Amino acid sequence: MLKQERLLALFSDAVKAGGGVHTSRELAFMMGEPLSPAFTKFLSDCARKGLIRRVVKGIFESTITPPEPTTAIYKIVNKLRGNVLNYISLESQLCHTGDISQVIMGRLTVMTKGRSGEFSTPYGIIEFTHTKKSIAQIMPNLYFDNEIGMFRATTSQAIADLKACNRNISMVES
């Protein structure tokens, strides 16, 4: 089996298991290869040929068996900041709960214990905003959403996050 075929088979199996978005490090491990410049070039070549798609730097998905589009952006969030606490908050969460009337399109707002940053993906922009609050302060105000595989803020926590970030709170419906 060719190396490209092995890569596509890995992605296919991952989608069946609920995955489908992988870092270059994970792909190298699953293929039993070292993460080397040669492997990185192999992934770039596969992306250029259209076999896989680079969703952000160092994170890929298969073009033949892509992940579920409704949850792919959340999988990308977990790959980008998987080693720290992240939760959906701010405008994205308030839109989800119906506490703001505006529909947030093409952007996901995430609070994180990691670094702030913005990442453009085929599924929309992911905006990470760092929080200085301790995990002990945050956790009572979060709940786990099994559908997306991430934590979400309660309405009160999302509003508190808006205020802490000095963002516009006038859109919050009373």
Care to describe what's here?
The protein has 174 residues and is of the alpha+beta class. It has two domains: 60 residues, Arc Repressor Mutant, subunit A, CATH 1.10.10; 82 residues, no CATH class. Helices cover 37% and strands 24% of the residues. The chain contains seven helices and nine strands. α5 runs antiparallel to α7. The radius of gyration is 18 Å and the shape is elongated. It comes from Pseudidiomarina atlantica. InterPro entries: AbiEi (IPR059220). This is Transcriptional regulator.
SSE inventory with pairings:
Elements: H1 3-16, E1 21-23, H2 24-30, H3 37-49, E2 52-56, E3 59-62, H4 72-80, E4 86-88, H5 90-97, E5 107-112, E6 117-121, E7 124-130, H6 135-138, E8 142-145, E9 150-153, H7 155-164
Parallel strand pairs: 4-9, 5-7
Antiparallel strand pairs: 1-3, 2-3, 4-5, 6-7, 8-9
InterPro entries: AbiEi
Protein name: Transcriptional regulator
* Count of DSSP-assigned helices: 7
Return the string of H and E elements: HEHHEEHEHEEEHEEH
- What oligomeric state do the depicted chains represent? single chain
**Which structural class do you get from the secondary structure elements?**
alpha+beta
Q: Which term fits the overall shape? A: elongated
Q: Report how far the terminal alpha carbons are from each other.
A: 60 Å
| Count of DSSP strands | 9
Strand content: 15-25%
Protein name: Transcriptional regulator
Organism: Pseudidiomarina atlantica
InterPro entries: AbiEi
